């Protein structure tokens, strides 16, 4: 996705070989026009799939997901992150280990929002080691819903998440795939969809 | 706002005299079409104000804010909630006491995103005791930005937040104002904008 890649090059910062900071337009300050284009790009990529719901994770997944929800004409559910859960009645839960923060969070979705008749598009802002996406997949499977695919705004292709999800048979579509952040230089994977 | 009030009556649940559950369309599952209409309604209410940025709070404020940002053609910043902050360099912070959770959270915004040239519309999903709105006001004032107004999706008018903010001279526009949740019955305040 051209506009997204330009934004990443113009305003993104490679903080280290693994950390890309995009807080100017995606995960702290949000560019609403870019979000509309991201929603359209997901619609284009998954146009052939039957999709009844979009599932994402608070907070940075919400803006791109709502724009995608508008394109597909379906509701968006955002999983909530909790440090711990004492009560889990009525909730589908899964655990996410954060390598950045070195802690495990529980993510939760009310079970009333997903059924075995749903076909779910999972959307998230970043894909690195795949921990968050894996937990979202787990929740969709617990609900007995189909997984239509996984839409990612920025994939760090040099980390293992994308490979693991694709090997597990999921259709993963990433709007920008980063090949490397070495030496503070942002390099994209060349691909057909570019 | 008629569509919002209908949604609240159809899908909202008065869990107690003070708690309104709207997780079907606003703060867990999101109705993207309703969010578009909410964005337009904020634009209509604040059409005469100069607005350069929208500030909200993760997570439920994000969807309505991004749609409003699209209408106003301005970026959206979402403040992050933290249990505690060890490092606050480069951050504007304020504290929010949650009556529901009986705990204090710090909310934080990178100071690079707000300047004394900004005129900020604060948006949030709920207004009850005004704790969150007050902390957002505090952050905008720390940045030296002007406050163009405060846009609220659902105000519980029987709680003190709206009165306090209006008495402090802020322009508060709420798209739905709840007069009472007593006996499980949702009643709106009658108003001109209805």
TrEMBL record, chains A, B:
It comes from the Bacteria. Xanthine binds at residues 20, 27, 156. Pathway: Purine metabolism; XMP biosynthesis via salvage pathway; XMP from xanthine: step 1/1. One of its GO terms (molecular function) is xanthine phosphoribosyltransferase activity. It is an enzyme of class 2 (transferase). SUPFAM superfamilies: PRTase-like (SSF53271). GO terms for biological process: purine ribonucleoside salvage; xanthine metabolic process; XMP salvage. It catalyses: XMP + diphosphate = xanthine + 5-phospho-alpha-D-ribose 1-diphosphate. The keyword Cytoplasm applies. Converts the preformed base xanthine, a product of nucleic acid breakdown, to xanthosine 5'-monophosphate (XMP), so it can be reused for RNA or DNA synthesis. This is Xanthine phosphoribosyltransferase. It comes from Salinicoccus roseus. The gene is xpt.
